[in-house]
Structures are given as C-alpha cells and as structure tokens.
Write a structure and sequence with these properties.
The protein is an alpha+beta fold and 186 residues long. It has 3 helices and 10 strands, in the order αββββββββββαα. 23% of the residues lie in helices and 48% in strands. Strands 1-2-3-4-5-8-9-10 form an 8-stranded antiparallel barrel. Residues 4-18 and 153-163 have low confidence and may be disordered.
Length: 186
Amino acid sequence: MRPFALPFALLLLLGLCSCEDPRRSFVGSFDASGNLILSSGGRMQTQDVKMTLRVVADAFGSDKLYLDFQCGLTATVQNSNAFTLDERECPSYENEGCAYVWRFSDGKGTVTEGDPALELRFNGSVNSRCSDGSSLSLNFLFTLTAMPAEPSSIEQRVGGRDSSLQLSVLPLLRAELEQAARAAPR
C-alpha cells in the first residue's frame, strides 16, 4: 500500500461523515397553527387549525421525510431550506354515515435560515359519500406555521392528533354536504 493511501482514505471517510444532512432543518416536534381553506363551486370556507406535528428523517431514504400529519405523509427534501410533499391518498374513514377520503396532491415546506418557524402549504381534495346518497368533493389548502414544540406540550396533545384534526374539520364538511344536497336539482 502506498504511504499516502491510508491518510487519504481516512480524510475521505471523515469528509463523507461530516456532510450535513439537509433534513436536519425540518426534523423535530412542532406546534402548528394556521388555516384550512375548503372550496367548491366558487365558495370558500375557512377553519382554524392547531395541532402537533412530528417530522422524522426516513432511515432508508437520504432525501425523505415522514410527516406525522393526517394519515402520514412523506416528503422529498430539495435542500436545507425546502421540501416537496409526495402525493398521498389517505385511507377512507367513516363518521355518522359518511365516508371521507383525503388526497394530498401537492405541497411544500420551507424554512428561512436562522428562523425556527417551518412554513407548510398542502393542497388536495377531500371526497365524501354518505349513506343517504349525498356526496361532495372539496378542494383544500392547509397553510400552517409550525414552531418547535415544548416537550410538555407534545406529551399532552400527541394522543389523538389525527382524529382531533379530522373531527375539527367534520362540522365544516357536514355543513357543505347539507348545503350541496339542498342545492341539488330534485
């Protein structure tokens, strides 16, 4: 072996290990708040949203994140300041005779260097079909600002995060379904 090969190999190994993972900018537990905007037929409804969000770096994909949001979303990191949401259709769930399906079609997350806030913007649709035959498809837009969470607030709220988000939106969806059923030609 050449005398400079071992030091060169060590430097190469140290250089590879010291590479910064761009996912670090996004990983953690966050208190998120903002708005959910539902739209259909030119009408818009806005719902305030507050939730706990966890973001985890995927162990198998060097550019993948897992977002503990709704049914579990994944994202692809573009750089240390931005990621794009991967498309995802959540499993159907039922409530009071109606089945709901969320489809996340587009989204992004961004951070500004030196600012602890994570800005999120998710787009998609939510479709509902009820046992009475009524159905509705609404477009949605989530705009959230997520701040690093205090450990005590995470423990208190993590339990029912998906159901609490769904349940907070259900009255708005129900009202839209009822209005669509009244407006439908008979």
